[in-house]
Each structure stands twice: as C-alpha cells, then as structure tokens.
Amino acid sequence: MTKTIVLGSSYQDDNKPIVFNDYLDATEFSSAFVRLPSQFNYIELICKNYNGCSRDLMFAYNDPSNRNNGTLFFGYWNSGTVK
Questions:
Q1: In 3D, which of 39, 38, 35 has the Cα closest to residue 20?
Q2: Is 81 inside a domain boundary?
Q3: What is the Cα–Cα distance from 27 to 1, expressed in whole angstroms?
Q4: What's the whole-model pTM score?
Q5: Which of 9, 24, 32, 80 has the largest CB neighbor count within 10 A?
Q6: In whole angstroms, how far apart are CA 71 and each of 2, 11, 14, 43, 76?
C-alpha cells in the first residue's frame, strides 16, 4: 500500500485518489509514459496549486533510504489517497 505524505502535516482524507499528469524528464515536464501512483511506495505532496496553476507538485519514490531514484510529478493530490 502506498504511503502518502503532506509535507509539514499529518492530514489525510480518504475521498478522492491522486492523479499524475506529467513528470519531470531531465529538464522539462512530459506526459509521455506517466506512471500510476500505485506503482510507488511513497508519494509526498510538495505544493498544492503549484505556481498558481491548478495542478499540484508531488514527489514519488519507492525506497526512503534512496530518494535519488524518485520522480517529480504534476497532477492532482485530491484527497491524497492511492487506488
């Protein structure tokens, strides 16, 4: 089961699942080959409504001792649940 984390908060609501739209590919965001949130063990919400746009910035990874292999995603945190 994926653990979801809101940086600086312990809040969790179980109504709407997380949606990934784009991911950071070297230097720009791309929608090609976007993975499902359920493919990660951890997802952190970095910022809701990032840069004034309607999407949220999230960081997803599998191994908390090796976060270097994580991926940045634009998408919708919604209620912070994963299905």
A1: 35
A2: no
A3: 30
A4: 0.78
A5: 80
A6: 15, 22, 23, 10, 15
Q: pLDDT tens string for the chain (83 positions)?
A: 888 888 766 555 556 788 888 888 666 778 877 889 999 999 999 999 998 888 999 999 999 999 888 889 999 999 999 98
Query: 6 pairs with which residues across the strands?
Result: 9, 45
Length of the chain: 83
Note the pLDDT of residue 11.
57
Domain assignment of residue 59, given as a range: 3-76
Q: Which two structure tokens, joined as six digits, stand for 55?
A: 């999407």
Q: Is 45 contained in some domain?
A: yes
Domains identified in the chain, total number: 1
Say if 52 falls within a structural domain. Answer: yes
